[in-house]
Write a structure and sequence with these properties.
heterodimer, A: Four Helix Bundle (Hemerythrin (Met), subunit A), Rossmann fold, six-stranded mixed sheet, 13 helices, B: alpha/beta, four-stranded mixed sheet, 10% strand, UPF0229 protein Q3O59_03335 (chain A)
Chain lengths: 422, 504
């Protein structure tokens, strides 16, 4: 009469399709929530998803139901003080005077926001939708320099550690069959003759002896075929195959002179995080090099980069030189995809700016995949911006953008990496 | 007979369960259920995980449903609430089908599993099989087939016409889902194969009918009488049905989608009308069956302690001023009424003899079965809510009239109040009072093809304007021409509430 069915191993994501439909339908709202969230997000928190809040009035399913007003009669439990005919002040809000279930919930829920979580991947997908790394396709194939060892069949020579036992023994078996086949056939014939002779009424002893000798000799020759020969050995073959490199390094350059306050640095930091997240989607491992500078440049760790305060003037070229130095020491441009992001408030020694332009033009831009300069300031642009502007027409992998306030960061980022119209 | 065999060793009380143990608990539960005359569909009990329970929960318990974003939303809500600990998952979901499918959640202890088996597989199951509403309006043997057909049909439509197109129609139908119910006609029983065959025939036939209705070739001159004749001649309460049959512009596949939503709505309609009874009946039986097993010594005391703890939570009724109060708990009310009914039969008091002369002292089992079979919440309460239950619940009735600045206590749990409370509580479960009374009133067949609905307010309760407007947009999408909604006041004055598209 009863069937017990264990369904625990059945798929548990029956609702996945419906969930996707929901996300698809409310993509606009969700995207907005995501870009709002990015400005609030802590920098180190890159591994979690995001909690999405969208106004629930946007997602209600309309139903025909009663509104407020009219005459209602409701029965409640738990009378502790009332007598018939008592008059009670109308309680505020919808709670006490609810009118059956349908209404109460419809009235009550309308106010709350609809909050739910999306996974890290969904979050990043939404965040970086329609973005791509500029110039990636064009450059990638002509700089194939990383090699990977891949299996490529078998070969007859090699080092012992690469011996393939199955293949070798298969070869040995084949050789043994091949080398002994005719002898075995002969042996079988002789044995048949021997048997026939033995069964004859008067066995010919001489003939028998002769046969026995021949058989013995044949057997010896069969046994002499070696079980394994160096000829049988097969070695696994490996080849080096060139591979597009999946290593990327991201240079974060920031001005830490006195004019950069913490708020400006925070904005720069958010920009770096976006860039980092974006790069991790394209490359398996992304290294980050932090270079901060005032009049001198120094490579530092993340903590120091973002939080230590320095004073003094600004010489941007020092950082560019250091970046070039580090590239030539540690990051061979043939192996690494190099990205640069520079944040500054635009201050620089006026004399230094042409030098910066020079270094960019001749040394850095030819090496890097992409270099973005963002200027975080509310003032007018200064010499550095103007010098950099002259580079724009020549270098496709160079971009400059201006950020005034926190809310600009994500739009600017999108602007930098938006998909180029084909 | 059952009591004759003395049980010395109670069944293991877990807390872990095994399939063998489930089997032996089930055997005992089934035996006791038979002893009490519970007649059920065959049972199919499925063990699922918490995630799967959430899936089942968000597809309103349907074992297979077509895809729609609203189920995704429900799932996200459920998942979110569960993760944050706002709610536990339902202990059980049971599906009105033949065989009757009940879900057991993997995480539960053997006690909970036994409770759910008694509650769902025997309580709800016997209710599904024997209550007149379910017997008339749902067909347990064909529902799974139908859902399968619906799911397949919707996804074929999605492939053919695009997800967005299908979603639009479904959205609109969902908005009118409560108005897709036939209250009087009985649906026919047909199998999946037949359903498919008929669907094709229906498509062709329907389209030809619609075309005829909208025939534009002029015939003889229309007389004044004919011009004033309304179509439909009687107001139609099943709006979705009306649309399926008469909407001028819907394509055949869209009509079929309307039909699917309507059918599913119809299937759930009895459940909406028998919440108190259904839950009360199931709760009464899990309580009675497990008590019986305890009396026999089949289950241990530890088992009973855990069971009673859960049972008490299920039937708790917070008072009106408690922060946990959210209306009357159907489990509590239903359980109390059935339990009291048994008491009235077994040990009637003078009061009972006065209130229930027919059943006081009768055979309790027969009386309970009769009550379960022949009523819905509304009539069940007005028939069986006893003064004792009113007293136990401390029920009191409030009249909330928006014309009156204060609320009035109309009745409390005393001699003068019983009748009134009973009547008001019964009305509270009357679906026709809960759902606004809106019917298809007229179609301008000879004019601009506009569709007019009419709302007849009861007790002066208005419609909620904002969402009404939204629903009208959906209706407009289905109808294809102008739709408008009128309100007919008690004094007969008719005024227009809204129209879509709005008059320019």
């Amino acid at each position: 009469m009863v069937h017990f069915i264990d369904r625990r191993l059945n798929g548990k994501n029956k609702s996945a399709v419906n969930r996707q439909r929901f996300l698809r339908r409310y993509k606009q709202q969700i995207k907005k929530a995501v870009s709002d969230a990015i400005s609030k997000r802590s920098v180190t928190d890159i591994d979690s998803g995001e909690s999405i809040t969208i106004p629930s009035k946007d997602i209600t399913e309309p139903m025909l139901h009663h509104g407020k007003g009219g005459r209602r009669e409701i029965v409640h439990p738990g009378n502790d003080q009332f007598s018939q005919g008592d008059r009670i002040k109308r309680p505020d809000g919808g709670g006490g005077q609810g009118s059956g279930k349908g209404d109460a919930s419809a009235d009550g829920e309308g106010e709350d926001d609809f909050v739910f979580s999306i996974s890290k991947d969904e979050y990043l997908d939404l965040l970086f939708e329609d973005l791509e790394l500029p110039n990636l396709k064009k450059n990638q194939l002509d700089k194939l320099v990383q090699y990977k060892q891949v299996r490529a069949g078998y070969r007859a020579e090699g080092v012992p550690s690469n011996i393939d036992i199955v293949r070798s023994l298969r070869g040995s078996l084949a050789r043994r069959i091949a080398m002994s086949a005719d002898k075995r056939r002969e042996l079988a014939e002789l044995e048949a003759q021997q048997q026939a002779l033995e069964q004859a009424p008067v066995p010919d002893q001489h003939q028998l002896k002769l046969l026995a000798e021949q058989i013995a000799e044949l057997k010896q020759r069969i046994a002499a075929v070696p079980y394994i020969d160096s000829f049988d050995l097969r070695y696994r073959n490996y080849q080096k195959r060139p591979e597009p490199t999946s290593k990327a390094v991201m240079f974060c350059l920031m001005d830490v002179s006195g004019s950069m306050d913490q708020a400006t640095k925070d904005m720069a930091k958010r920009f770096y995080i976006l860039l980092y997240l974006f790069l991790t989607r394209s490359y398996k491992n992304v290294e980050v090099v932090y270079i901060r500078h005032h009049t001198q440049a120094k490579e530092v760790d993340e903590q120091e980069f973002f939080y230590s305060q320095e004073t003094g003037g600004t010489i941007v070229s020092s950082a560019l030189k250091l970046m070039h130095e580090i590239i030539s020491q540690r990051y061979n441009p043939e192996e690494w995809n190099i990205y640069g992001a520079q944040a500054s408030d635009g201050d620089n020694w006026t004399d230094d700016s042409p030098l910066c332009q020079q270094i960019m033009r001749s040394q850095l831009l030819p090496l890097v995949r992409y270099y973005a300069y963002i200027e975080i300031t509310t003032r007018a642009h200064q010499s550095l911006w103007q010098q950099y502007e002259t580079l724009l027409p020549q270098f496709e992998n160079f971009a400059i953008q201006h950020i005034r306030e926190q809310a600009d960061i994500y739009p600017v980022f999108r602007e930098l990496f938006k998909k180029q119209a084909a | 007979m059952a009591k004759a065999q003395p049980k010395t060793d109670p069944l293991s009380d877990g807390p872990d369960w095994t399939f063998e143990l489930l089997e032996s608990y089930h055997q005992h539960i089934a035996r006791v259920a038979r002893h009490y005359g519970l007649e059920t569909y065959p049972n199919q009990i499925e063990v699922i995980t918490a995630e799967q329970m959430m899936d089942a929960y968000s597809s309103i318990g349907m074992p297979l449903g077509y895809h729609h974003w609203s189920y995704g939303k429900k799932f996200i809500q459920t998942e979110q609430n569960y993760k944050r600990g706002y709610m536990g998952l339902a202990y059980e979901i049971v599906i009105n089908s033949d065989p009757c499918i009940a879900y057991l959640m993997e995480e539960n202890t053997i006690t909970m599993q036994a409770l759910v088996m008694a509650h769902a597989s025997y309580g709800h199951n016997s209710f599904f099989k024997n209550n007149y509403l379910f017997k008339t309006w749902t067909d347990a043997s064909s529902i799974i087939d139908y859902l399968l057909f619906a799911k397949g049909y919707v996804s074929r439509c999605e492939e053919k016409y695009g997800i967005a197109e299908v979603e639009e129609v479904l959205d609109s139908c969902h908005a009118l889902m409560n108005y897709g119910v036939d209250r009087y006609k009985r649906p026919q029983k047909i199998s999946l194969e037949e359903e498919q065959k008929r669907q094709e025939e229906r498509e062709a036939y329907l389209q030809s009918q619609v075309n005829d209705l909208w025939r534009t070739i002029p015939t003889k001159p229309v007389t004044e009488v004919e011009r004033n004749k309304r179509f439909p001649s009687e107001p139609q309460e099943n709006i979705l049905y009306f649309i399926e049959k008469n909407a001028p512009l819907l394509k055949p596949w869209q009509r079929e989608l309307v039909r699917i939503v309507r059918k599913i709505s119809q299937y759930f309609y009895p459940q909406k009308q028998t919440q108190v009874m259904n839950e009360g009946w199931a709760t009464f039986w899990h309580y009675t069956i497990l008590q019986h097993l305890y009396d026999e010594g089949v289950v241990s005391e530890r088992f009973m302690m855990e069971f009673l703890h859960t049972h008490t939570n299920v039937v708790s009724q917070p008072a009106y001023n408690s922060p946990h109060y959210s209306g009357i708990n159907p489990y509590a009310l239903g359980f109390a009424i059935f339990t009291d009914l048994r008491r009235i039969c077994e040990t009637p008091t003078t009061e009972d003899r006065e209130w229930f002369p027919d059943i006081a002292g009768s055979d309790w089992l027969e009386t309970l079965h009769f009550a379960m079979q022949n009523f819905k919440d509304e009539s069940f309460i007005s028939q069986y809510l006893s003064p004792k239950v009113i007293r136990d619940f401390h029920l009191f009735a409030i009249v909330d009239d928006s014309k009156d600045p204060s609320l009035e206590v109309a009745a409390i749990h005393n001699q003068q109040g019983y009748q009134k409370i009973r009547q008001m509580l019964s009305a509270q479960y009357n679906l026709s009072l809960l759902e606004p009374n809106i019917q298809v009133y007229n179609v301008d067949v000879r004019g601009d093809r506009s569709l007019t609905l009419r709302y007849v307010p009861q007790r002066g309760i208005p419609l909620e304007p904002q969402s009404t407007k939204e629903v009208m947009k959906h209706l407009h999408r289905l109808w294809g021409f102008q739709v408008s909604l009128e309100q007919q006041q008690e004094d007969g004055v008719v005024s227009e509430l809204c129209r879509c598209p709005e008059a320019s």
